[in-house]
């Protein structure tokens, strides 16, 4: 098969790694890709939002399967355009990707179908939002831009003054662009966060192994929100009992709700959960693999990713027995100093060949490119995801941090406490 992957981050590198392992994959392409993906795929300089060019390229190369990794093209309707051109595509259509594309939509869906989540109100008028904050809010409280914001459109406000400033930031200053035209105000939940990625074929859901992300830029969960600074899998806090509850009250009900709304979902639903004292509740939905969650979940998956993707497209996921290795994985993101605000690009990276010498160690490229002289250089805030397996989480964590020493570039920055919660479990 000729396979096309759409995206350019660590998640797409992890997908490319899995596709390359499949005996069904003949030729792999990626638009636009990065320097790491280029090891497995022919990368083409077509942007993920250049739908016409992607469709034309898929036709030209006789692509048998497209896997859309990124949120923007999914929410924008790339799957619809590819399918209209007769190209098999793994990922939700536009009317289903709204599950991630609009937080207001997803919160209303959860309310309507009694799926446990934080109490909330939606606002499209900043004055009414502030009136609500003054009259009814309990602090701390959470403000969320409705649309996509690179994982950064969430503000936790401890006081009324902070919340008023947050409304201004999101709705008036438009820090997150049009994503802030509507805003969700919701109660602040406490507990352990867990990410559960799942495959969905429109009717049924099959969950992958659990994971936990670390969003803040600094050690001890300090600093600004980022796209994710590291992750581990599985989560020791996600027990069989919790899984049973989530399957019954969250996972399948979400798939059923989307079908009932005339928006059947095919692809990956990422369930961001908070394990509260009152039981698991939905923090957020994503309509694709998480990044960096994919970098710890996919290397542990035993199944052929093409078989699973095709089953989701064809509605035959019930015939797939999802299997994961009985081990653990930890991913530590190497970023450029200054991320997520401002940072230098074009810095040479050394030590990447070391990963070819060690089994169970992976270097997933997120923000890299090939310079004209053939040198791999930094090209983003999150540069590399250093992933390692181990027989348990502590071993995987030690392995991942040891492997971060193999790679060097100027202004290399990372958190030193990824998976520290493991030690407390």
Automatic annotation (TrEMBL):
Its EC number is 6.3.4.13. The keyword Nucleotide-binding applies. It catalyses: 5-phospho-beta-D-ribosylamine + glycine + ATP = N(1)-(5-phospho-beta-D-ribosyl)glycinamide + ADP + phosphate + H(+). Gene3D superfamilies: 3.40.50.20, ATP-grasp fold, A domain, ATP-grasp fold, B domain, Phosphoribosylglycinamide synthetase, C-terminal domain. It is an enzyme of class 6 (ligase). Its cofactor is Mg(2+); Mn(2+). Pathway: Purine metabolism; IMP biosynthesis via de novo pathway; N(1)-(5-phospho-D-ribosyl)glycinamide from 5-phospho-alpha-D-ribose 1-diphosphate: step 2/2. It comes from the Bacteria. Transmembrane segments: none annotated. Residues 107-317 form the ATP-grasp domain. The keyword Ligase applies. GO terms for molecular function: phosphoribosylamine-glycine ligase activity. Keywords: ATP-binding, Ligase, Nucleotide-binding, Purine biosynthesis. Belongs to the GARS family. HAMAP family: GARS. PANTHER family: PHOSPHORIBOSYLAMINE--GLYCINE LIGASE (PTHR43472), PHOSPHORIBOSYLAMINE--GLYCINE LIGASE, CHLOROPLASTIC (PTHR43472:SF1). This is Phosphoribosylamine--glycine ligase. The lineage of its organism: Bacteria, Bacillati, Bacillota, Clostridia, Lachnospirales. The gene is purD.
């Amino acid at each position: 098969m000729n396979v096309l992957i759409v995206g350019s981050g660590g998640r797409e590198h992890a997908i490319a790694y899995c596709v390359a392992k499949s005996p069904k994959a003949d030729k792999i392409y990626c638009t636009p890709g990065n320097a790491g993906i280029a090891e497995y795929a022919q990368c083409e300089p077509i942007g993920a939002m250049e739908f016409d060019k992607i469709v034309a390229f898929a036709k030209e190369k006789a692509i048998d399967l497209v896997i859309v990794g990124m949120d923007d093209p999914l929410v924008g309707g790339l799957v619809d355009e590819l399918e209209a051109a007769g190209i098999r595509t793994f990922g939700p259509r536009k009317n289903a990707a709204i599950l991630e594309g609009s937080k207001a939509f997803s919160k209303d869906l959860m309310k309507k179908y009694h799926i446990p989540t934080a109490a909330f109100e939606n606002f499209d008028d900043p004055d009414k939002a502030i009136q609500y904050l003054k009259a009814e809010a309990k602090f701390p409280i959470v403000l969320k831009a409705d649309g996509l914001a690179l994982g950064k459109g969430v503000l936790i406000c401890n006081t009324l003054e902070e919340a008023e400033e947050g409304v201004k930031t999101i709705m008036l200053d438009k820090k997150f662009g049009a994503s802030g035209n509507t805003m969700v105000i919701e109660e602040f939940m406490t507990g352990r966060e867990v990410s559960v990625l799942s495959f969905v074929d429109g009717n049924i859901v099959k969950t992958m192994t659990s994971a936990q992300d670390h969003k803040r830029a600094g050690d001890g969960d300090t600093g600004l929100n980022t796209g994710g600074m590291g992750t581990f899998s599985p989560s020791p806090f996600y027990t069989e009992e919790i899984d049973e509850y989530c399957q019954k009250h969250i996972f399948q009900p979400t798939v059923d709700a989307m079908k009932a709304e005339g928006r059947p979902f095919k692809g990956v639903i990422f369930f961001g959960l908070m394990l509260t004292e009152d039981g698991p509740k939905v923090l957020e939905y994503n309509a694709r693999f998480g990044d960096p969650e994919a970098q710890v979940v996919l290397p542990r998956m035993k199944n052929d990713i093409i078989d699973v993707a095709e089953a989701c497209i064809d509605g035959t996921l019930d015939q797939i027995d999802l299997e994961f290795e009985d081990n653990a994985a930890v991913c530590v993101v190497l970023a450029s100093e200054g991320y997520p605000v401002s940072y230098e690009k074009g810095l040479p990276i050394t030590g990447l060949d070391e990963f070819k010498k060690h089994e169970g160690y992976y270097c997933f490229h997120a923000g890299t490119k090939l310079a004209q002289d053939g040198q791999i250089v930094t090209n983003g805030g999150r540069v590399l995801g250093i992933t390692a397996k181990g027989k348990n989480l502590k071993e995987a964590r030690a392995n991942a941090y040891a492997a971060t020493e193999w790679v060097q570039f100027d202004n290399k920055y990372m958190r030193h406490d990824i998976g520290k919660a493991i030690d407390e479990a």
